[in-house]
Specification:
Elements lengths: L2 E11 L4 E8 L13 H16 L1 H5 L4 E5 L1 H4 L12 E5 L7 H12 L3 E4 L9 H6 L2 E5 L5 H11 L5 E5 L4 H10 L3 E2 L8 E6 L5 H11 L6 H8 L3 H11 L13 H8 L1 H13 L8 H19 L5 H9 L3 H5 L3 H6 L5 H9 L2 H15 L12 H27 L1
Parallel strand pairs: 2-3, 3-4, 4-5, 5-6, 6-7, 7-8
Antiparallel strand pairs: 1-2, 1-8, 1-9
Helix pairs in contact: 1-10, 1-12, 8-12, 9-11, 10-11, 13-14, 13-18, 13-19, 14-17, 14-18, 17-18
């Protein structure tokens, strides 16, 4: 299974407390620098690995994160699923302030995302960007000190915070403090560190089906939820993203449908598009199909036993293999997901009604017939739930296989 890797470098305020982290593309666990294949693809990997795989809380805690954006993301040509409360977007120095770029920055700012101008070089046509920016980053290595002083004097005309980049000595830090810089970043203070996670495999064909439904102006959340529930990886990533959107404690989620309503169609569309963009086209393996079978059997048991919300039982079965899929212990996985106490307890300890259904399914898989029970259901009803679930998962797999072969 491919890993998820993001570099991060701290940004400090004048009291040398961490103000934010800049997130950086890393190709692998052995990579200490950004081995770019292209700027657009590097940005796609940072967005996906940071917010859908590793999780913003683990990466940056309660401070903001700075992200470089290429022109394609700024102008809206590429998907941009950002949790606005956490993000400062960096407009790269080689992005010219064209009308399309200015309109794109305005749209991003309207979403509540803050703007930074990276490696700033002053040009008269930058005025519209400076009016929207909250931060301006100045590379100390890009000009001599006299030019840096002139640049700082020019930027004092604008309501922006100044951030000194590539501070590599104590003397440079002192120089920047005296010039009145607000924030500091560089090897003298902190070198980039690598944060690792595990990428849950996705099925590109299934994602394309979901994306086509998302593009339908008459799409309904109920039907969309049913389709997304067939993709354990996507369901997991949507929950990851929903848990990255606010610093405040998250609203507990009981089922996939609930998370879709919280995220909204736009965010879901952007997330699916991003995953497709980075070409996660691994086919679902045994763990994924097993998760689907467990989900459907848990739901079937709940329906037959007259439980109020079978969708919660479906979610318990669907996420029962998340530890194996991510290669991280279940308690660590659940720490990053805003699930209800009942659902978390079911996944961790098989407690409560949800846990009883899951335990019944696992016992049926093991052939441990003395432990196969759920409520007042008899053997015939439990076996029927398993048969229905097996048919469901096999049909899904066969449908995907046919589309892949086509």
């Amino acid at each position: 299974m491919a890993g998820a890797y993001v570099g991060r470098q701290a940004i400090y305020d004048r009291s040398l407390k961490i103000h934010a982290y800049e997130l950086l593309y890393r190709a692998s666990g052995a990579s200490s620098e950004a081995d770019f294949v292209s700027g657009d693809l590097a940005t796609a990997h940072v967005l996906s690995d940071a917010f859908l795989e590793i999780g913003a809380q683990r990466l940056v805690g309660d401070v903001p994160c700075f992200l470089n954006l290429t022109e394609g993301y700024i102008t809206g040509e590429l998907p941009l699923p950002l949790p606005p409360e956490r993000v400062v977007v960096e407009v790269l120095e080689d992005v010219l302030p064209t009308a399309a770029v200015i309109e794109g920055v305005e749209r991003i700012k309207e979403r509540g995302v803050r703007i930074a101008l990276d490696d700033y070089i002053h040009r008269e046509d930058n005025d519209p960007l400076l009016e929207m920016a909250e931060y301006v980053k100045i590379d100390l290595r890009a000009q001599d000190r006299d030019a840096t002083r002139e640049l700082v004097t020019e930027l004092r005309k604008w309501d922006v915070k100044l951030l000194a980049e590539k501070v590599e000595t104590e003397e440079e830090l002192k120089f920047c403090r005296e010039l009145g810089f607000d924030y500091f970043q560089g090897f003298f203070l902190n070198k980039p560190e690598l944060v690792k996670g595990h990428r849950v495999p996705s099925n590109r064909v299934g994602l394309l089906r979901i994306l086509s439904r998302l593009l339908d102006p008459n799409v309904e959340m109920k039907g969309l939820g049913q389709l997304i529930s067939q993709d354990v990886s996507l369901a997991y990533k949507l929950l990851r993203h929903s848990n990255s959107t606010l610093f405040a404690p998250q609203e507990e989620i009981k089922a996939i449908q609930h998370s879709l309503v919280l995220l909204g169609l736009r965010a879901i569309r952007e997330i699916v598009s991003l995953i497709i963009l980075i070409d996660l086209d691994e086919r679902p393996g045994d763990l994924v199909t097993q998760s689907l079978r467990r989900a459907k059997m848990c739901e079937g048991l709940a329906e037959r036993a007259g439980q109020d919300d079978p969708s919660e039982f479906f979610t318990a079965g669907l996420f029962s293999n998340l530890d194996a899929l991510t290669r991280v212990s279940m308690d660590q996985v659940l720490a990053d997901l805003p699930l209800s106490e009942q659902l978390s307890a079911a996944l961790l300890a098989h407690s409560g009604k949800l846990g009883s259904a899951l335990e019944c399914v696992l016992a049926f898989e093991r052939g441990d017939w003395d432990e196969v029970s759920f409520g007042d259901l008899d053997e015939r009803e439990i076996s029927a739930a398993f048969a229905d679930a097996t048919e469901y998962s096999e049909k899904l797999w066969q449908g995907m296989a046919k589309r892949i072969a086509a």
